[in-house]
Specification:
By secondary structure, this protein is mainly alpha-helical. The chain is built from 14 helices and no strands. It has a single domain, classed as Amino acid/polyamine transporter I.
């Protein structure tokens, strides 16, 4: 969770929220904490490797809603891969002054996604070992950068010396949609129920701990960037804002240090995401929730899903810029998240002893953020709203056709599914 999102999204959030952008991460953490309640309750009751797909099937039965929402989650993860890959390219090109070169950005982003495919294809042990090394580098590096930048710049310079009255409430709430994306990795922890010790207790604890660590780290980074740069400077360098903040605060050495940390974080982020989403798509295929074709390829379903994942992520990285990729991810994730909470509230809250007030608060929080984000994007980029709406509708329509073709009959929500 830590690292890739903060490099990709800090500039986007600051551009919307203005000098208050560190608070966007705090509000995002609060919305995420409300959202985590459903996932923790479900994982404590029925820990499994099914994760979100298990939750949705328990809530809705194995029909169109469960299949479509699960696929939206998988697609939001693929979108995240392309988002982080583009961020990798922006930071890699920054030292050469080519961070605005669309061709170079696309080539480097695609190259990283292909590299992630080969690491994943080499086996789970390679993914685990590489991710562990990169995690130590990126987490330690991010904290060092943040503390050093705050120490050098203080709390009352840069963006924090600007007038906060110019920030609109709607734009601030819209920025929270991007903040939530930086936390959404917690949902993949629900897939670990079949693998860890005492899952009825430890899945929930892990989710809580991860969110707490993330909000502290993200807040430190936001304060460091805001102390070093004005909002105009952050907006201008939104795709590589941490590198831009490092130079005035820490000099040339700090700039190169941040570049290295960013490349490490984004590389490990893409590798981990490709691993998670290919595993999830393979599971959805085994559960007959999505169609599958070998297209003449050899190997098992997991190897095929690796190929499909990198093809889709690579295409998005080439076709869209960072802002539009992040926007697509926000739309997909918020819709899926609301469906999870509604399903738990409507069908399972008594069975898992969940509080209605918390579930409804999570739905309301997601709804407010989604409405504000949609309104802001309709004003600034209506095309991406249309693309997101069309893709979400297409997912539901195609899932309905597929499930009808295979003769899938809905079971009663809350049925005993493992």
């Amino acid at each position: 969770m830590i690292g890739a999102g903060i490099f990709a999204l800090t500039g986007q959030i600051a551009q919307l929220a203005g000098p208050l952008f560190p608070l966007s991460f705090v509000v995002g953490a609060i919305v995420t904490a409300l959202a985590a309640y459903s996932y923790i309750k479900m994982s404590n009751a029925w820990p499994s490797s099914g994760g979100i797909a298990m939750i949705l099937q328990k809530a809705y039965g194995p029909g169109v809603v469960a299949a479509s929402a699960s696929l939206l989650m998988a697609l939001s993860m693929v979108i995240n891969e392309s988002l982080v890959a583009r961020t990798f390219a922006a930071y890699a090109l920054r030292p050469f002054g080519q961070e605005e070169n669309a061709l170079f950005l696309s080539i480097l982003a695609l190259a990283l996604i292909v590299f992630a495919y080969f690491v994943n294809a080499s086996g789970n042990r390679s993914v685990s070992g590489f991710s562990l090394i990169m995690s130590v580098i990126k987490v330690g590096g991010i904290v060092v950068f943040a503390v050093a930048a705050i120490w050098a710049s203080g709390f009352f310079s840069g963006a924090f010396s600007e007038d906060i009255s110019q920030t609109g409430g709607g734009a601030f709430l819209a920025s929270v949609a991007f903040s939530i994306l930086a936390f959404k990795g917690f949902t993949t922890i629900t897939n670990s129920g079949g693998d860890i010790v005492d899952p009825h207790r430890n899945v929930g604890r892990t989710i809580v701990i991860s969110i707490v660590i993330c909000v502290v780290t993200y807040l430190l980074v936001a304060l460091a960037v805001g102390a070093s740069l004005t909002i105009g400077e952050i907006a201008q360098a939104r795709d590589y804002s941490l590198a831009a903040a490092a130079r005035p605060a820490l000099g040339q050495l700090g700039f190169w240090f941040t570049i290295i940390i960013a490349l490490s974080a984004t590389t490990s982020g893409v590798i981990a995401s490709v691993f998670a989403v290919s595993r999830m798509l393979a599971m959805l295929t085994d559960m007959k929730m999505i169609p599958h074709s070998h297209f003449g390829m050899k190997g098992g379903i997991r190897s095929h899903m690796l190929v499909y994942t990198v093809v889709v992520a690579g295409s998005l990285a080439v076709l869209f810029d960072l802002s539009r990729i992040a926007s697509l991810g926000a739309f997909f994730y918020l819709v899926m998240d609301m469906l999870v909470h509604w399903g738990v509230y409507r069908h399972l809250r008594k069975e898992i002893a969940a509080k209605s007030s918390v579930l409804l608060a999570a739905i309301a929080a997601d709804g407010v953020v989604l409405a504000a984000f949609t309104a802001t994007k309709l004003d600034t980029d209506p095309l991406i709203v249309g693309i997101a709406a069309a893709l979400i509708a297409a997912v539901f329509a195609l899932e309905a056709l597929f499930l009808r073709r295979i003769g899938r009959k809905d079971e009663k929500p809350g049925s005993k599914l493992r």
